[in-house]
Write a structure and sequence with these properties.
224 residues, alpha/beta, TIM Barrel, globular, binds D-xylitol-5-phosphate, binds zinc ion
Length: 224
């Protein structure tokens, strides 16, 4: 089973990478110390957008894994059971949304059986207590900071309190991830409220120098 990073990690979200320069950008971020690469999978039903596929994920894994990198697949799809099997060979971590399937216990068990760390993602309107009955099957909780579907949305400020509540509810072995709207203005706060895995797309790839932006975010996390 892959191991969760021992220290807080900024996780570049590849949905905003340049699709024609993806390998180059992933390699440069590995050089800069990034170790968790977040791959958003959207089905056009659970969220109103469509991306990223198994072949892209396979390519990222081929680059990142030999250098100690982890591929974190965030499934924003209705009924994600089949997709777990499609993505697991190229993933080290997989999260599914509690809102996307009536049987999350089974899904989380299947993620672990497929050899990946198991995550549960919760939308901003979902009570944090929803994760409690599933805690034994969880390795991380992805607490959304926006309603999923697009990068570049504004952070929902109530998320900070939700991160703190999750940190209090969950045992230390379960990592807390925050995803959506994270950038230089709020990443230190998100860390201070308990986030261990801090996902960022537009603040990294929307910048003129994605590596410098990654390094700046990582520095803010390290000194939070
Ligand atoms: C949102 C995705 C996020 C997204 C974050 O639906 O799950 O991972 O890439 O994008 P930013 O960091 O730009 O909000
Ligand atoms: Zn995501």
């Amino acid at each position: 089973m892959p191991e969760m990073p021992a220290t807080p990690a900024v996780c570049p979200s590849l949905m905003s990478a340049d699709p024609l320069r993806l390998g180059e950008q992933v390699s440069a971020l590995l050089d800069a110390g990034a170790r968790v690469f977040h791959v958003d999978v959207m089905d056009g039903r659970f969220v109103p957008n469509l991306m990223l596929g198994t072949e892209t994920t396979r390519g990222v894994a081929a680059l990142a894994r030999p250098r100690g990198g982890l591929v974190d697949v965030h499934l924003m799809v209705e009924g994600p059971r089949e997709a777990i099997g499609w993505y697991a060979p190229h993933a080290d971590m997989i999260s599914v949304h509690v809102e996307a399937d009536p049987h999350p216990h089974q899904l989380l068990s299947e993620i672990r059986e497929a050899g990946c760390l198991a995550g549960l993602a919760i939308n901003p309107g979902t009570p944090v207590e929803m994760v409690l009955p599933l805690v034994e099957r969880l390795d991380y909780v992805n607490c959304m900071g926006v309603n999923p579907g697009f990068s570049g949305q504004s952070f929902i400020p109530e998320t900070l309190g939700r991160l703190g509540a999750l940190r209090d509810l969950l045992p230390p072995r379960v990592a807390v991830q925050v995803d959506g709207g994270i950038g230089p203005a709020n990443i230190a706060d998100a860390r201070a409220f308990g986030a261990d895995l801090l996902v960022s797309a537009s603040a990294i790839f929307g910048a003129a120098d994605p590596v410098a932006s990654y390094a700046d975010l990582a520095e803010r996390v390290a000194s939070a």
